[in-house]
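Researcher: Structure prediction, please.
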Amino acid sequence: MTSLNAPVILVRQFISLFIRRMIAENFGESGIFLQGQLRSLIQLLTSFTSLGIFNGVVKYISEYRDDQEKLKDLFSTTFVFTVIGSIVSAVVLLVWHQDLSHYLFGTYQYAYLIQLIAVLVPFISLQRVFNGVVNGLSQYKKFAKIDLVSYLVSSAWVIICLMQNNFDGVLIGIAATPLIQLLILLWVFIDVLRQYLKIKNLVFRAPMAKLFVAFSMMSFFSTVVLSTVEIEIRNLILRRISESDAGIWSAMLDLSKNYMAFSTILFTMYVIPKFAVVHGRLQFLKEMGIVYRTILPIFGLGMIGVYFCRGFIIDLIFPGFDAMSSLFKWQLVGDFIRLIGMVMSYYFIARKLVYYFVITEILSVGLFYVFAHYFIGQYGVEGVVIGHMIRYVVYVVVVFLMVWYYVSRQAKEKVRNDE
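Model: Predicted structure follows.
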């Protein structure tokens, strides 16, 4: 799956950066700030509207694809979770659309956009669930093509609006992307979905709720809370410095997300399968050492290249955002330290250690907010990326201690069982 997704991700990253350039040229730092807030909101809703069950759907549709009774329980539980998540999301968006517009964008001008997103909430939820079904059925090649086509269609909408200097149209295009993805997915996979999803068999009960709770917790802290903190940090910069600086940090964050996407591809393809079969401290240290000696130096060299080419990158993608230059060193160092920690934290995912994963995610996000809030007063917007770096220093130490504790405990239990 990962190798099939790599070309799609490359194309998406290229188009994404092209769109960012057009927004930066036409609407400056303010435009980057506003689209950043909207994308964080959509990312948050993508997880919350289905209560974070995407990975659970992928796992259990794969296991139960030939068991109609289990599929009935699976989809009934999914139905309950999505209905609850969608109703709560839509009500909040509709009732507080004015306040949310002011909170997210610093103006009541975009209250209509919040109302539109409230209407789109059921489609956002369905798109996420159906994506999970298709992934669980291992329809990777078709799904990769659908993902690319839907992204091209929504991007075309955004680019046309940018060419017309229609920023409202740009925001509507970003908000409507999940709907476009859902329509194209249904067009291609409707027969497959009908084969497994029997709507007449759905009942409003959740027999598999306990199995989904772990996935919901992991999604909540890795997506919902992180997106909320990103929104709040942009608002923090807006309140304490300026909208221009909020746009500068948003641009830096966008760039970071683009190059960090490749680490996710590589880690999913290599690190998780390796760690899933690791037993004992020595084997853990051996595998971790291999990753650190082979993969990390490649990313390290790439990041050094990004740092020395930062002026060219700014001119190419975010023309006029010269203030970004001072943020690169802290962001890149922080991201590299994050990679060190990710290698270890993927052990939690590989071993399905939800409790450990949730604790480290809470720590990471919480430290980011606290450090950003503290350092912004001393160093301005640069304080946010300084906080980003320091939180991952603490994160790496804590994750190493937790993984070492778990691996040591497992080794001792194995020795006792052998005796």
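Model: The chain has a mean pLDDT of 85.
Researcher: Thanks, that helps.
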